[in-house]
Write a structure and sequence with these properties.
Distance between the termini: 42 Å
Number of helices: 9
CATH class of the largest domain: Alpha Beta
Structural class: alpha/beta
Strand content: 15-25%
Number of domains: 2
Helix content: 25-40%
Order of helices and strands: HHHEHHEHHEHEEHE
Largest sheet: 4 strands, parallel
CATH architecture of the largest domain: 3-Layer(aba) Sandwich
Number of strands: 6
Strand order of the largest sheet: 1-6-5-2
Length: 229
């Protein structure tokens, strides 16, 4: 396998998603220097995380965590661009595996029974070719061996692009986006909701509130790959 990888890397070189340097054997998506320099966020069970502070008003949310701090001008924002727009969703799955192992060891994923990726509208998914949040969910699923429930919650419409909108506009823009196709499958369960980036939390809260109305007795944990501080 080492020889095959060496030949493959020679013919089809791979490059770091952050700095653009050619990757060596054993490096995945990021070079070791950029991997070690990632703006990581540590989840501490005894403290409110930034994600938990944003989602504090959602009564069914029991815990929330994000792996990376997102800054638009940082080179590390390229990870999200590769994940969402450059047809490299596997970078999200890979990072989610790493994050899930750490969160599992801290008890964050205890009791989770189902993983729900934040859905895209059918129009946007056809255009992009994939749902980046589903790839993040699959990375977590490989670690905790809990199924990804893709399709139980659907997105009815594509909201206006959130980038560039103010906080109030984002919340208005996120109303009425989702519906629950199979509410009975959520009843009484502990769900892990997964998304790529949390900014104001408007879209996530819209999804959570839709699920709460369909099944009031659910418990929800939230994981996002990145969060805007």
């Amino acid at each position: 396998m080492g020889l095959i990888r060496a030949v493959t890397d020679l013919l089809l070189p791979r490059y770091c998603k952050v700095c653009g340097r050619r990757l060596d054997m054993g490096e995945q998506h990021l070079c070791i220097s950029c991997f070690l320099g990632m703006p990581r966020l540590e989840y501490l069970p005894e403290e409110l995380s930034l994600a938990e502070r944003i989602l504090l008003t959602e009564r069914n949310v029991v815990r929330a965590a994000s792996m990376l701090k997102y800054e638009k001008e940082s080179d590390y924002s390229k990870i999200i661009y590769h994940l969402k727009y450059y047809n490299h969703p596997s970078v999200g799955s890979w990072l989610a595996e790493i994050g899930a192992r750490e969160l599992r060891d801290k008890g964050f994923l205890d009791g989770v029974e189902m993983i729900i990726p934040l859905p895209l509208s059918s129009v946007k998914q056809r255009r992009r070719g994939y749902n980046q949040s589903a790839y993040i969910a699959e990375g977590i699923s490989r670690v905790i061996e809990i199924p990804v429930a893709d399709g139980i919650v659907t997105r009815e419409v594509s909201n206006q692009k959130q980038a560039g909108l103010g906080r109030f506009q984002r919340w208005n823009n996120a109303e009425g986006l989702f519906s629950v196709a199979q509410p009975e499958s959520l009843a009484g369960r502990h769900l892990l909701v997964v998304d790529d980036v949390m900014t104001t939390g408007a879209t996530l809260c819209s999804l959570i509130q839709t699920m709460e109305k369909a099944s009031p007795d659910i418990r929800i944990s939230v994981f996002t790959l990145a969060i805007v501080e």
